[in-house]
Protein 1
Amino acid sequence: MADQKQIITRFAPSPTGFLHIGGGRTALFSWLYARRHNGKFLLRIEDTDRERSTEPAIEAIFEGLRWLGLEWDGDVTYQFAQQARHREVADQLMATGHAYHCYASPEELDEMRAKAKAEGGPMKYDGRWRDRPASDAPAGVKPVIRFKSPNEGETVVRDHVMGDVTFANAQLDDLIIVRSDGTPTYNLSVVVDDHDMGVTHIIRGDDHLTNAGRQSQIYKAMGWDVPEFAHVPLIHGPDGAKLSKRHGALGVEAYRDLGYLPEAMRNYLARLGWSHGDDEIFSTDQALAWFDLEHIGRSPSRFDFAKLENLNGHYIREADDTRLADDTIALMTRIDGWNVDADFRSKLIASMPGIKERAKTLLEIAKGADFLRSARPLALDEKAAKLLDGDTKSLLARLLPRLEARNEWTASGIEDDVRAFAEEEGQKLGKIAQPLRAAATGQTVSPPIFDVLATLGRDEALGRIRDQVA
Ligand code: GLU
């Protein structure tokens, strides 16, 4: 066997905002790959942008990953804390002739920029300090350190998704690896951290593909093994444009607050850009058994909100009733100020089979549970109010004594009474059940009405009917 090394992946977000849905998917792919191969999934917070990195954003990343069920191994690495080590590597590159001090002034760089612009190409540093002796250094100027990138030949990134991506070395100019204030730059930090963390597989967005070329050169200059790369195409919106705010929810926490289940998100995100035959619905265990880098698609995937919603509905129907009740209560307590007691919780659990049939999100479960939270006298919605006219009210008034006479308050007992009553009245069951539903829930849709009445309990159910016929 060629390579028996333990597989180590990592997720390396910059904590400058919430955990983006694209980041969530990258993390999921890295997690799946590591777990599938009994490897490790590490987390590195790339907090070197001191202005934009914030503590709440770091917390949001932890929260988002935990909610998605993507636990990382070991301690979190903070990139900023590794600066001394990054500088040490820059010094080694200097010592081995792979890097040099550059004293080019801002004016000189402006000239290079203007020249590149005139020629219609990207800004390229022309290498003017590459081979100059230290004795040429101007007094009082703090130099940057540039990486001496090879001028000839090619750098090939063997990417598991994109295939072999070839960069002509002449196109990659000498990158600044340490700024004049002594701070290391992004590409150096990433290489050093990935090396020091023992990362074997870098799975990330394809906006980093060019960086992979530059980073490969740094690995080689240090004599380090270049990790395997898998650059995943970015996520686009339904209209084909790069996913942005205007498409709707962008952060993982927004999906949590919209009432999506983490297992539905995992299924949806795994399928977004990766495939296993025609399988659309698969469990996390199946994804763990199947996930590979070879079936990540090369073209951007489109985020399909309707598909996610349907998938979520599927997972809701499969989920345990108590868990759904607890998740709904926790969510609504947090975002909507719910303050409910144990009695409500048991009623919600009892009603869950009927409620979850129609719900695609926890928010819809909450809405379906409105009838349990409403206080008498119920405010009727428009349709329910329309349904309860004079005729239906007198129908309910005639039904009431029969229900009041019932001792055993169960769904099937209530159903027996209502059926017998409908027969006496020469009405179809629905003609009685609909106004009953309107009176008991204030709405025209609800879980099965006899279940609703049983769950509400005798006093509350009868009280609600009485309120409407009085
Ligand atoms: N911190 C980078 C980002 O948020 C990712 C770097 C990497 O994965 O190499 O885009």
Note: The longest strand covers residues 40-45.
Protein 2
Amino acid sequence: MKNLIYLLLVFLVSACSNNRRDAIIKDNISVIPRPLSVKVSNNDFFELNTVKAWVDGKYNSVFTDTLLYAIDLNGIKVEQKDSANLVIEVDESIKPEGYYLEINDKRIIIKAADASGAQYGLTSLKQMVVLDGKKLPICKIQDVPKFAYRGMHLDVGRHLFAVSDIKKYIDYLAEYKYNHFHWHLTEDQGWRIEIKKYPKLTEIGAYRKETLIANLYMEPQKFDGKRYGGFYTQEEVKDIVRYAGDRNITVIPEIEMPGHALAALASYPSLGCTGGPYEVATKWGVVADVYCPYDSTFMFLEDVIDEVIELFPGKYIHIGGDECPKDSWKASAFCQNLIKQLNLKDEHGLQSYFIQRMEKYINSKGKQIIGWDEILEGGLAPNATVMSWRGNEGGIEAAKQKHDVIMTPESHCYFDYYQSDNESEPLAIGGLTTLDKVYNWEVIPAELDRRNKKYILGGQANLWTEYINNYSYLEYMAFSRGMAMSEALWSDAKNYKNFLKRYEKHNNYLKSKGVNIANHLYDIKANPTATADGSIDVTFEGLDGMKVLCSDDKGGNMMVKIDEKYKIKSSGKYTFTGIKGDKTGRSVRINIELHKGTTAKITSEQQPSEKYFGGGINALANGIEGSDVKYSGNEWLGFEGTDCNLLFELPQSDSIGQVDFRFFKGEGQWIYLPKSLNVSLSEDNKTFNDVFVSDSIVADGKVAKIRASFPKSAAKYLKIQITNHGVIAEGRPGAGHKAWLFVDEIKVE
Ligand code: ACM
């Protein structure tokens, strides 16, 4: 018995220490996306200097194409398995795209059932060698992706990139185990693929006379005055598709219809309902002119699809389907007749007819369609896969209808959004999609029940290039968040802190290779919160062990730890800078203006949209104004289609005579000034006296600064009613939808 207990103890102790070692070494393996399981059996190492590889014939292409160019090592192939220090072999029992990687004291063994798995095993090995060194831990890695579809998209309609740059983008996708490249080839702003039967598509449709260079909602809009354009020849397309295929990446072409078709209409005006003339768009957005559902339009599109199918061997053709305004169909006698003739309900029915007719054609050629989630409107085409971009709802609905779904909600997957609210960020379309937000994205919507989850094939990041006009800018916007996304799509065992350690190495490595990857690792987030005593507590977020240098505008400096608070007791300009060892992040500058509202407890009848939640309701009176030029960040709160009715409760009754408001105006983004504004005061939260009522709120620039002044009176409670503009008028961007209302600091004096 004693012996048994002794043996059990030994077993437990060794199991514990092995587990601990496991954990330590596992965390030292810098592979992204994080493998499913890493087991380290002892503390020994295997040193890999010159590769002598034996490769199963099935994986020859994987080895030659991906390993040697990537691994930064010399290598040869050998005939005898016994003399190899790297063996790559077939194991049919491994799941699709999975691999087994064993490093023992004699050699490295990679097993996979398919070329993707073999490539991923080699990629993981390569990352270990490059980032952790040639002394490799003795270990066994078992790995398999969580999702079968792992995509990245690239819009070349707004801006196009050299073939060599697209290949670099594909290399990046392969490095992070993506398996689909969604290539958005046609847009209002440019048609980018050679179609031999319709040469005007690239003679006319591939060029625009100029390009918008500042925010869409800047008035007047700013253009560069330079002709811009280009396209990919069919030979170039074939080259790119082959290059991607060699890296086990399927290219999905997107040919947009019925909307986002202005470049095609400019080339062949008879494709539109009015017959034109049309001009290739010079700015991004939603354009009212779309394909008219004439038989001749379908013949044109079928011809285009015929040529496209020849170039792309994958099973999917993406036909867009998003953002198709119905104005031109409403005004067209032909369309109205067609609606009657086909017994359709309305223009949405016509959109569904359009998509279903194209689906039938594409299915007849042995291919499947993918469409953005608007293809649900008016009835889903029978075999369509849905890309859910306007949130999760489209994906949930399509999965309930038992259709395959690719999740790509703009809240987490749009890499044209800002990735930081630091003032030095280059121009982006809006929004704020940070690295941690991407990392923590749950691909499968929680609302889906177990039976329908299987329809979620995976997810995708979208890179729209409204402002991304060169490859270096593309790297900046996509490459950091692309790593986080790869782990969200691949790994079951997500852990952001653990990811950051590996990410830091990848980021530094890519930087050392000249890649313009964004590095916000040493940036800190400063979260100011108003307290009841009238001061502001600033807490920080950043890497463990960081320090923050806090400076005020009177020459005061103070260093605090990342998990400590900094207290602000007087108005002024404050600067916070994160420091880690010899690394310094970008400074955060905050202008604090303490006022009576910063001491108030605020309640709101409506919640801001999750997409523009900023620092929460308290950000409305924390002494800090948001940006005058953009509505992303912590200070602006966005209410989607709702009013904003607030109650401020002051700690005690005070004399109040003025309230200042800030509202954002960006009608191109569906952001409207409020219809009316009402302030009333009360001592007892029962009887309120109106002190300010306005129904004519105007702005000079993008921000309306409204001052409500009234005779001073004593109040403990302020009721503030901000009424949403309501439904957007016909002919304006977002027509028919309720407007967004953006509210910033409410200053009470
Ligand atoms: C989209 O972003 N319009 C799909």
Note: The domain at 29-143 is CATH 3.30.379.10 (Chitobiase; domain 2).
